[in-house]
Amino acid sequence: MPAATLTTAWEDFEVPAHARGGQVTLNLYDHLASYLPKRPGAYLRISSDRFGLEAGVDRQLEDAEDSRTRLGWGPFAKIYRENDTSAFKKRKITKPDGTIDWVVLRPEFRQLLADLALGVIDGVIFYDLDRLVRQPRDLEDLIDIVEYVKRPVTGATGGRMNLINDSDRHMARMMCVMALKSSEDTARRVARQHLSAAQNGQVQGRIAYGWVRKGEHKGQLVPDEADLVTRIFQDFLAGESAYSLAKTFNSEGVQPPAAKTWSSTMVAKMLRNPRYAGMVSYAGRHRVNAVTAGDGWTLVLFDEQGRPLLGSWEPIISPKIWSQVQFELQRRRQKAGIKPGESGATPVVRYFLSGILRCNKCHRGLVGHRYKQRRTGKIIRNYECPPSDRGGCGGTAISAPTADLAVEEAMTAFLHKQLDCAKTELNQSAANVADLQAQLDQALSRKSDLIRRWSEGALQKIDVAEEDYFTMLAALNRKISMRREALEAAESTPVSTVPPEELLKNWTSGTLRQRRAIVKRYLHCIVVQPPAHRSKFNSPQAVKERLAPHWKTAVELAA
To answer: Is residue 383's pLDDT more than 80?
Structure first.
């Protein structure tokens, strides 16, 4: 096509602003690496900091700041510090659907991934790859986001690795596997040392309550604490429960081992500890069978003849008393319906609003309670704040049936309103798309008619002068471009991941877990306020007035 003809053809052509500059390059890395983040983040981590001084992460921050200045990046928008945090050790977690997984728990690292994906930060500087990741799963999660957002993630040391480069990503994968192998080798050696020490009768882990835990007299008996341990075992055999013992110690002002107050969990753990009877406790990786929940015998280390190994420390109680306590623990667990190997620490949620209702004083989750009145024999169901030995204050209670009904009515009305709004928005969206399509079709028709008349030399029939043709054509092109952009935006409006119809169906006929999940989807919690009138403590209207819902924002719901 001649140059003059080509120039004339582009005179009537207008490119939308968002489509300009759509270039390609054979060296994508150079193009992406040239980007200078304006709000980068810094990731700092150290595995062990026994004294909490954070000196290691502070030194890492200095090097990260030096790299940021050298690269010409903007100031750090967020700094992600994970002090005294392992990137290797996995933890067992139970997902909401009941399935089990083993993952490395690093909240700041996961927050960094979310912020990078959402654009809160537009680049990352990490100290070194072994500080960033030790598990290939974590590295792949980060690489997926880097490939999606196309923003640099570079190291402050170790050759200035940048994960935006594909060759650096492959090198990072190999280095991560090598670091994982190093961590596993170290874990294996440490586990072998622990087993050897346990077989020689040495204490492994923290010194238990009853002995000196620090200093030159470490491991020696503390008479007052030893007497209390003896009392715990004797009172338990006499019929006391772990809960009643903890409650008694709190009322007497007895100082607990390493907490503000005594708890039933703390007492039960002491009752299962074989070290109090002078026997070696071992739950390391060399055990053939894992430790069973609630069974102290599975902690005991035996010799080749099947006898418990004895430690080098002075026992507080006799092995006979400890053995009797283990049988009593199992008897009570069986009576409570807890099967062998199952943990009784996590109760099954049987109340609709357990944990969702919150105490207005200590903000602890309220739990459901059921008991029988002695005078009338009537069954009473309440939501109550746990006592102080269980992390609450015990100062808030509300009728369970009345609170359940009030929240059910409010959520039903809310979900119906959500459904109506969704239908209205859908109808409005469809009408808007149809209107935009009609406007686009009209503009295209006018353009086609104008070009046809110009080519036939018939512009005078519609009162258009020859010199006005290109002006009108350019105006029509701009209008068509704007209509197309508006239509594309209207048609690409995201649809809710969970349709309101499905939510309403799950709400009206779903299980307790589904109904609780729907409440948690829209609410952070419901704070239970003090009653305005003591005489109307549990009346329906008074209960509704006491419930203060804390709704999630639109941004939180969309996340």
So the answer is: yes
Structure tokens at 478: 């701009």
In the chain, how long is the greatest CA-to-CA distance? 115
Task: Tell which residue, 322, 381, 331, 390, has the closest CA to residue 362.
Answer: 390
Residues 179 and 228 in one domain: no
Q: Which of 201, 197, 202, 206 has the alpha carbon at shortest distance from 286?
A: 197
> Is the residue at 329 inside a domain?
yes
| Cα 418 to Cα 409, 414, 499, distances in angstroms | 14, 6, 10
Closest CA to 40 of 156, 144, 128: 156
Q: pLDDT class for 535, splitting at 50, 70, 90? A: low
User: 262 and 326, same structural domain?
Assistant: yes
Residues 68 and 135 in one domain: yes
Which residue reads 């940021």 in tokens?
Answer: 68
* Domain range for 458: 429-491
Contact present, 134 and 179 (Cβ < 8 Å) = yes
Would you give the end-to-end CA distance of the chain in angstroms?
52
| Sequence-ordered alpha helix ranges (H) in 336-456 | 400-456
| 243 Cβ neighbours under 8 A, 6+ residues apart | 264, 267, 389
**Residue-wise pLDDT tens digits, 469-525:** 767 777 777 777 777 777 666 655 444 445 666 767 777 777 777 788 888 888 888
Most confidently modeled of 84-98, 208-222, 234-248, 282-296? 234-248
Is the CB of residue 297 less than 8 Å from the CB of residue 326?
Answer: yes
Once rounded to an integer, what is the mean pLDDT over residues 527-554? 77
Rounded distance, CA 531 to CA 398, Å? 9
